[in-house]
Write a structure and sequence with these properties.
548 residues, single chain, 20 helices, 0% strand, mainly alpha
Length: 548
């Protein structure tokens, strides 16, 4: 075998290391050495090169191992860091969950404690409210008992006073009537002897006055002046029930009337209701427009015909200026048809001498006709005429007719008649009825006679617990509007409460107004609506209107 020409066979590195070790240790002979090809036993240079190459390769392998090891270490470190990071994140997430759970538990505990505290506070407030309501109710009941005892005592005292006053009034009326009858009997012959002479003298004076007026003011036409109808004599006992003359309905329908006529009838309604200051201003403006009925009523107003001092300094001069034009009043009235209003105005002219001679009897004739036709102011004037004639029955009857037509003046005086027994028996129930009608007119009533209002209030207070709720209502109206007493809204509220408790529908309505407007109490719309509903259930129309 040609070893020299044999191709070198790669010898494993481990074999080369063993051969090299044996050569160094002398285990291989020279002959064997010579017989080993160079490729098997290299020369020293090659060996050195091979060693260096081996070293480099080893170094490269070491470096590669070191690099791989470093990368492995780094990977391990990175994995460790990532594992630690994941672990830290998991711990943080767990901590967050724990904190959130604790927070929720704390919030739930706080909410439960808050709800428990609120419930306890509500229970405490409810208990205090119940206790306070019980104390208030006890105080109210005690106050009601005390008030009932006080009013019962006052009732007994006032009934005693009223009985004494009634007896004294009856005695005084009887004495006055006896004295008048005696005086009339003593003077009857004298009056009979002088009657013819007085009648002749009066006729001559009237003829002379009419001649003078006709000479001063010629008539507006040649036609004869209409004469005033003379009423037939009537039995006083049937006077009120007699049919009224056919002079047209009163008050008339103002539709289609002129503006001055509408203003006139509006002011006349104010006079009837006692709103004299408002009517005075309207009559003054009508007089400035030379509207004759307005001039006549302004003259009546200023001369005191409505029994109330409400004249201002400015219009008082009207009487002196108008006296030169009084003759125009008669010319105007004579040219008008015989209506209820014209009859009343004629009566006013004859009563105070506006353009005609002053004649009480002639004025009474015109007032009688207008009163029987339903004119409330004429009913008052004819009532005054019969009072002056001491015919108290007719006086009372005509005043009652006017009172039932909302005449405030008549309502107060009819109540006075029932108190004193003038023209009618004493009747405290009817007294209260008419005085409450008067009190309903309110604070705008300006008819005067405050002393009568005060006396009526005392009578109402004295009879306050006789089972008539109208008495409480009347007292409440007096205290609310200041009728016969200073205004006292608190007492008015108390009286309305009593009237409402006793079943008065108007008392319920007035009590509702107090709650709604804060009259004598704190405003409370819920309480007001409750009172309005109770009043409406009893048929009160004003309360029904409030609930719409």
């Amino acid at each position: 075998m040609d070893h020299d020409n044999a191709l070198p066979v790669p010898i494993p590195e481990e074999v080369m290391e063993v051969i090299q070790s044996m050569k160094e240790d002398g285990f291989i002979s020279q002959k064997l050495k010579d017989s080993i090809p160079d490729w098997v036993i290299p020369n020293p240079i090659e060996e050195k090169i091979a060693e260096e190459k081996a070293l480099q390769e080893k170094k490269s392998r070491d470096e590669e191992k070191a690099r791989i090891e470093e990368e492995r270490r780094k990977n391990n470190l990175r994995k460790k860091i990532e594992a630690e990071k994941r672990e830290a994140e998991e711990k943080a997430e767990a901590e967050r969950r724990r904190i959130a759970a604790e927070k929720r538990a704390l919030e739930e505990r706080i909410e439960q404690e808050r709800l428990a505290a609120e419930k306890a506070e509500q229970e405490r407030i409810a208990a205090e409210k119940r206790a306070l309501e019980e104390r208030i109710e006890q105080a109210r009941l005690a106050a009601e008992r005390a008030e009932q005892e006080r009013i019962a005592a006052e009732k007994a005292e006032h009934e005693r006073i009223a009985a004494e006053a009634k007896a004294a009034a009856e005695k005084q009326v009887a004495e006055e009537r006896a004295a008048l009858e005696k005086a009339l009997a003593a003077q009857q012959e004298k009056i009979a002897a002088e009657a013819n002479a007085a009648a002749q003298k009066k006729e001559m004076e009237e003829l002379a006055a009419r001649a003078a007026l006709n000479a001063a003011v010629p008539p507006r036409s040649n036609r004869p002046l209409p004469q005033t109808p003379q009423p037939a004599q009537q039995d006083p006992s049937t006077l009120v029930s007699q049919p009224k003359p056919q002079l047209g309905a009163y008050p008339p329908d103002v539709t289609g009337l002129s503006q001055n006529e509408q203003r006139y009838f509006k002011a006349l309604k104010w006079v009837i209701c006692g709103r004299l200051r408002d009517s005075l201003g309207t009559f003054q403006r009508l007089a400035e427009d030379e509207y004759v009925p307005g001039c006549i009523m302004l003259s009546v107003h200023l001369i005191g015909g409505f029994d109330a001092p409400t004249c201002s300094p400015r219009p008082r001069g009207f009487l002196s200026k108008a006296s030169d034009k009084f003759h125009l009043f008669r010319s105007f009235l004579d040219s008008q048809p015989q209506t209820t209003e014209i009859l009343y105005l004629r009566g006013c002219c004859y009563k105070w001498g506006f353009g005609v001679p002053q004649d009480t009897e002639e004025s009474a004739i015109h007032f009688q006709c207008a009163a029987d036709a339903g004119h409330p102011l004429a009913q008052v004037k004819i009532g005054e005429y019969y009072y002056d004639k001491q015919d108290y029955k007719r006086y009372f009857d005509y005043y009652t007719l006017a009172a039932n037509q909302d005449c405030a003046h008549a309502q107060l005086f009819v109540a006075e008649c029932y108190r004193t027994g003038t023209g009618t028996p004493y009747d405290v129930e009817m007294l209260i009825h008419f005085f409450v009608m008067f009190a309903r007119q309110g604070a705008e009533t300006e008819i005067g006679h405050e002393e009568k209002q005060t006396l009526m209030l005392r009578v109402l207070e004295g009879a306050v617990y006789s089972g008539n709720p109208m008495k409480h209502l009347g007292c409440g109206l007096c205290y609310e509007y200041g009728l016969g007493t200073p205004k006292d809204e608190s007492r008015a509220f108390d009286k309305y409460q009593v009237a409402a408790i006793e079943g008065s529908a108007e008392g319920q309505y007035r009590l509702g107004l107090c709650y709604e407007k804060g009259i004598g109490t704190t405003p409370n719309q819920n309480e007001a609506n409750g009172c309005f509903r109770k009043a409406a259930a009893q048929g009160n129309l004003d309360a029904k209107e409030k609930l719409k």
